[in-house]
Amino acid sequence: MAVTPRLDLKQSQSLLMTQQLRQAISLLQVSNLELESIIAKELESNPLLERENDRLADSDAGGQTIDDYDTPPPAAPDTEEFKPDIDCDNQFDDYASDREGYDEFPQQDWQDYAASKINRDSGDYDYFEQKLAAEKSLFQLLEEQISGTFASSGDKIIARRLCEQLDSAGYFRGNVDAVAEQLRTTSRRVAAILKKLKNFEPAGIFAQSLAECLEIQLADKNRLDPIAQKVLANLDMIGERKFHELKKTCNISDEDLESVLNDIRSLNPKPAADYDTPAATAVIPDVFVRRHPSGEYLVELNQMSLPRILINHEYRCRITRSKDTGKYLRRQLGQASFLIKALHQRAETILRVSEEIVRTQRDFFEYGIDHLKPMQLKDIAEKAEIHESTVSRAVANKYMHTPRGLFELKYFFSNAAGKLDGSEDTSTLSIKHKIKELINQESPQAILSDDKLVELLAAQGIKIARRTIAKYRETMNIPTSAERKRQKRPPK
Asked: How many domains does the chain fold into?
């Protein structure tokens, strides 16, 4: 069969992701903190952009003339004619001294705060931030101990290399032979240095197992005796709460076992957990929800967290008036205009989505989590008349401050679960909350199985399978009924 050329015409449509469209999408899905860093980069690269605060400062400064500075300040009021309607004769000098125990009030907690007053007048000083920054990290503490323990430079290098192989809990996860091969030394030398490091503070650091970590801490407290050593050799029995078998294996009495268990409970299984902890970052809500006296819920954006940028009017006038303006400035003007429009559209989209969430979940704000309705992205998309992907980006990394607390916008989205009457108006989050409440209220003598939870939820009108309860329980890190029975069983 002969092959002949053929010409076909085909018409199609496609959406091209322009750079501006990509920028608008990225601005919608980032949080306000991330948005602030993006705006800072745009302000550095685009000379036509400026913050609204900068313009107000310039306008205030420009409205003043030299005559304003020469004008003398207004005279103080005459003390004889001016009489404030407050009683200035009240004396409070002796109030504090008359209080019981005032002289014994400790003042040492305020010494560092008072000493720092000389630096607080600058305006940008935060005492608590300075206090957190002054705390030593774990490696700073170890470095001080290494410098005071080892005299040889080679020993210090080996010790620092061993410090690099600590995990987040403070356990040594490296290999002595590998470290010796890397540093071209003997394994005996590395092992000897590691042994000395195990005596460092905090107690239990550089341990290679949980039993060794607890053993080091007991020795540091002078509580390591042969009975404690026997118990530490059988830690798996403690985890499984097999106290009867543990007493037989260690050949100890109830009093000895109880004493050792109390000592172990007072120890820290993660000695490095208290160090190198990053400072907590406060969550800044993007949306505020407050209840009006009329009973309605008002939704408004957090204006303090929204960036306010404007186009420099001086540059803009020069560009529009001059015909010889370069392509660079015109391109920057277009980008600046689009960025401002994108920020405005972002704020409107977040507000619209938040209003629909509050309107749909009104029962939650009125009565609590038991009345949280199932809600999906498509439900809000249909009500707000926007695409489902836009709703997904609008709720990402966004928080809402409500009369019931601070919630992530994603919190209000959950699937539906069926009821016995055939309806599906129960949220999975509400069911998880009910399961957790039932398990928390159970007694050690009557542990609730998954089948029993099915019966209790059915009594409340919720239809759910045993397998589903097991899945919800695992997602909430709740152990099985057998494990909870062992955990709540008192030691014998």
From this structure: 3
